[in-house]
Amino acid sequence: MTGSARRKLFVLAPVSALALGLTACATTSESKVAIGLVVPISGAHKSIGTDMSRGFHLYLDQHGGKLGGRLVDVIEADEGERVKTGVAAVTRLIEDEEVQAVVGLVGSETALAAKDVAEGGETPLIVTGAGADQFADGSDYLWRTSVTNADLGGALGEAVAQETERGAAYVIASDDAAGHESSDGFMIALEAEGGGIAGQGYTPADATEDWSGLFAKVKKSGADAIYAAYAGKEAEAFVKQYRDSGLARSTPLYGPGFLTEGDVLSTLGGDATGVRTVLHYSDAMDSLTNAAFVKDYREKYDATPTAYSVQAYDAAAALDKALELSDDVNRNEIADSLGSVGTIVSPRGNWTFDPNHNPDQPYFLRVVKGTADGPRNVVLQKIAPAGS
CA-to-CA distance for 129 and 338, rounded, in angstroms? Predict the structure, then answer.
């Protein structure tokens, strides 16, 4: 990161300890802006948080540590694994650090709980991970650069109906907002295409280690496809056990792209071969914008960017345009300007915010294939969310 952009980090601790370890936020001015970045720095989704942080800081580095021509202080906080941890981080950034905007959040329940904090503090909150369907509702202070769970699941319905013999899918997902919303979107779209549901199974979020019982039910059901919605370490364990169960020889696996994204794919390697997913991005996408982004990201971090990286990168791009449109640095003016940023030029392809402040974007059907650079999510075709 360039020297002009100062980066602070805090982890939630008793107020007395924070008082000793933290300095006050920089005073708002036309030449400087404080942005809060809340991502998992610890816990099961730490790698996702790392990807988001890298994406946001890469954009800053490419723009001289500035957004909208103003120097940036990035104040990072740990979202952790629990709703109360993430909400407390957002609250502290807004109330104590007095940031002008907050970026981040992976957990859907956390994003939903943080809505009131952002709106009560009249502070723009740009979610770069969580897909909770009810988060973005057109509020001036609520924005998202990632996905909505229902759209992500719904985009796969037609593909499964067309690519399998009967379109009979067994649905397996985490028992939380992300798992249910994406699965519901998938099932509605699948049935609309003439497919059917062979069975359903939901497992405790971030706590499941064994899916053998559900795999046995899949075999008995006669399903000709599995739809699975997991991310992070759970996705890694699920795909590995799916391969070990022998189901991969007879029952193809589909799911939201997080099933084979980032560190999950790096760890699984060949075990993920053939898994089909849907997402708005792949590092293998063929465009000049993406090629330049991947090159810069690899040179800076010696790693390959993920959808998480792009989502945070694009949040910085949106803030860059919003701050350029703002005469002064204050929360309400930035929130108002976000409504006028127009097209975001992105590695995923150009997109805009829709009326509810979610990305208006296409999705891509991907499959894991071995390449000269190792297993990658290779794009098969562009597909649209159900109902679009």
Answer: 18
Q: Is 371 helix (H, G, I), strand (E, B) or coil?
A: strand
DSSP 242-277: HHHHTGGGTS-EEEEGGGG-THHHHHHGGGGTT-EE
CB 207 within 8 A of CB 174: no
Residues contacting residue 102 through CB under 8 Å, at least 6 positions apart? 35, 36, 37, 38, 90, 93, 94, 118, 123, 124, 125, 126
DSSP string, 56-98: HHHHHHHTTTEETTEEEEEEEEE--SSHHHHHHHHHHHHHTS-
Over residues 157-165, the mean pLDDT reads 91
State which H helix or E strand residue 200 sits in.
strand 196-203
For the segment 64-81, the average pLDDT, to the nearest whole number, is 96
Count of CA atoms in the C-beta half-sphere (13 A) of 102: 34
pLDDT digits (tens, 9 = 90+) for 5-51: 444 555 444 333 333 333 333 333 346 899 999 999 998 889 999 99
- Rounded distance between C-alpha atoms, residue 38 and residue 11, angstroms: 10
**First-to-last CA distance in the chain?**
39
Place of tokens 């799911």: 255
Residue 199, φ and ψ in degrees, nearest 5: 165, 165
d(CA 136, CA 126): 9
Mean pLDDT of 324-347: 95
Q: Assign 207 a pLDDT band (cuts: 50, 70, 90).
A: confident
The secondary element (H helix, E strand) that includes residue 288 is: helix 288-301
- What are the pLDDT digits (tens) for 246-273? 999 999 999 999 999 999 999 999 999 9
Phi, psi of 192 (to 5 degrees): -65, -25
Q: Which letter does DSSP use for residue 344 in this model?
A: B
Residue 282: CB partners within 8 Å, gap ≥ 6? Answer: 257, 307, 364, 366, 376, 377, 378, 379
